[in-house]
Amino acid sequence: MQLDAKTVLDNPGKRFGFLITGIPVSDEFPYEFRFTKDVKAEGEYWSEDEKIFVSMHIEFSLEETCAKCLKPLEYSSVTESEVVFSQSDEDEEYYLTDGMTVMLDKAVLDEISLNQPMQYLCKEDCKGLCPICGQDLNEGTCDCDTSLSRINPFEKLKDLF
Ligand SMILES: [Zn+2]
Ligand SMILES: [Zn+2]
Question: What's the predicted TM-score (pTM) here?
Fold first, then answer.
């Protein structure tokens, strides 16, 4: 996923629109995302003081696993972000560009990783699995006595002190 850096650097202040789709890859800091379709990045970019500013809207879909029932699910989301590319690697807070192309992959992956839920759930009220027999409680109940598993194991210890 890349943009032409030269044109914007040659035209400071002028805004260029873009729409690119693809699967972002970066070996700089590999994220283990399983994309279910191409990521879409749409927005504007421009240059100012030899730096390139990218304002974009990112749409992505990932294959994840429900934290409670362990079923696979698709997580789709959108995020808005503004990132800056510099031609000097002394500017550590910015992404690096060689002045010819803007490689968006790393920035897109970083934005996606910032836009993750605390945990993935197939549905908000997923009942999860029975801790004893593994029955998917969304699909039916089992005869296990789960009251035992709800007792906090430290509760008993408290009596000792
Ligand atoms: Zn679930
Ligand atoms: Zn059970």
Answer: 0.79
